[in-house]
Amino acid sequence: MATISQEVNIEMLEKLADGTFKKKHPETKATQTLIESSNFVSVNVEGAMNELFTNVSNGKDLVGGAITDVDDSVVIPTDPSFGDLADAIGSISTGKKWASGETKTHLRSTNVYSIFVTGLDFKPAIIITLPKNKISSASYLTTVANMTQYGASEDINYPDFNRPFDAITDNSFMIRVASSVVGEDFVWIAFE
């Protein structure tokens, strides 16, 4: 803990005989106030404050660098506040990405119904679909690696079941689902 020199502060006011005080040193300057601490190189308050600001700034730079080392897509402002750094830490992305949602079927060709999802921030490797209201009774687990659709229901022999995907892109997919209704609600989840 820092010890502040009492020499200057004791002499700041002089008590007069009538009980009033006279200013002996009208202003106290940070350069005149001594500080003794092994935590600082400086020997006065002004120098110690400058060291603190420099150390905090350098520390923020180190934390910002550590954040971008983990996830280089995170943007750190030039002179970040601690709030900025906390927000940046919260936006670090690690591991596989995933997304889920709901969409409606559309007729792609005769007896082939599909769902189409856009706006992903990754290319899906695994997609699971399920009819929301059970108009259809199938759910499909679909993998991009071998371009094969796998299902588990009585609809496993659905017409054209083994056709490959129509489209998997870096941010969307269109896949066939077990449905015979245009506009049927399907829930889906996709994994990177």
Task: Note down, in words, how this protein is organized.
The chain has 2 domains: 3-90, no CATH class; 98-191, no CATH class. 21% of the residues lie in helices and 29% in strands. It has helices at residues 6-10, 45-70, 82-90, and strands spanning 3-4, 13-15, 21-23, 35-36, 98-104, 106-109, 112-117, 126-131, 140-143, 148-151, 167-168, 173-177, 185-191. A hairpin with an 8-residue loop joins β8 and β9. The longest helix has 26 residues, at 45-70. It starts with a strand and ends with a strand.
Report, as a whole number of angstroms, the end-to-end distance: 52 Å
β-sheet strand percentage: 25-35%
Q: State the secondary-structure class.
A: alpha+beta
Q: Tally the helices: what do you get? A: 3
Strands of the widest sheet, in order across it, are 5-13-8-9-10
Helical percent range?
10-25%
Radius of gyration, rounded?
Answer: 34 Å
Report the mean per-residue pLDDT as an integer: 78
Q: What is the count of distinct domains?
A: 2
- In total, the number of strands is 13
Helix and strand pattern: EHEEEHHEEEEEEEEE
